[in-house]
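Changelog-adjacent note: as of this version, every example in the card shows the full chain rather than a window. The one below runs 158 residues end to end.
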Amino acid sequence: FVVDDNILKENAQPTHFHDYSKEKWTKKLFLAFAHAIDEVFDTGRYLVFGTLLASAMQIYLPTRILTTIGHNPITAILIMMLLAFILSLCSEADAFIGASLLSSFGIAPVLAFLLIGPMVDIKNLMMMVKSFKARFIVQFISVSSIIIVLYCLFVGVM
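Full-length structure tokens:
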């Protein structure tokens, strides 16, 4: 069974149409809103699920467990990075939470919390899984985490 490529090319219809230059402004506005709604529903499920997990962790994870484990500088940094991942807060909320944990953990672990939070959290991870290959995601998280741990250990020593 042989198919002529020229026949396919002549009869092929594009699946996406991206030239809206000849459309009226009202149709352009409608299409922009339709695209925005599609994006919200596409990524909104990750936001809702990530928020559910983050709020469950905030309720069920006692702070005393974190402070007893976090006496060693390396474990304190790793715990705070894990906490930032689990809580999945926005960077503005990270700053307030970090400020409240500063007296319990010190500058290096809180810095790790503030650095990793915007880069890697539950919502971000779920969206990355949809868009990137697993190898890239593992490399991104690994390199980011190693650099943050080393930097925070350096800052903690100074």
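Structural remarks: The helical segments are 5-11, 25-60, 63-69, 73-87, 91-105, 107-116, 122-131, 134-157.
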